[in-house]
Amino acid sequence: MAHGRPGSHGAKDNAPHGRKQRGSACRSGPDTFAPVRAYRATLVGQLAALRAVQRTDGFWNVNLADPAHLPGPETSGTAFFTYGTAYALCAGLVPRGLLRPVAARAWNAMVDTAVHPDGFLGHVQNVGDRPESSQPVTHDSTADFGVGAFLLAGTELMALGEG
Fold first, then answer.
1. Does the CA dihedral 87-88-93-96 come out positive or negative?
2. Which pTM value belongs to this model?
3. Residue 54 pLDDT grade (very low, low, confident, very high; cuts 50, 70, 90)
């Protein structure tokens, strides 16, 4: 099973749940290491595509190709995408004017919709063999990896100056 780290195997690029793995591939080694250059180039291309499918409320759908399939807020994918976007901004890989609003919209959506008053993080799709196996995603749905992704996003946004 892929864990979204450079060098991991098994992620399916066309799978809707692959969005979790893609967001975490952005933190890697030095620029002189050829796979890092390839990861970063892939990230830049994916961020352009993600910008086009971000919802008006700031979240991304579970299925990026079909907004009507499993609609509703989902925090883990949105958090990983926010982390990847903020990293790319901090690293100077993408134009700030184009993608900073994307990261800000996503962060604000998660904070306003998914974070409970006591700090609990909801709207996290749980682990499953396909997106449908962990539905419905509700205000009370959570998983450790979603919280971790949210914290990664927040940390990277702080480095960017969005926090």
1. negative
2. 0.80
3. very high
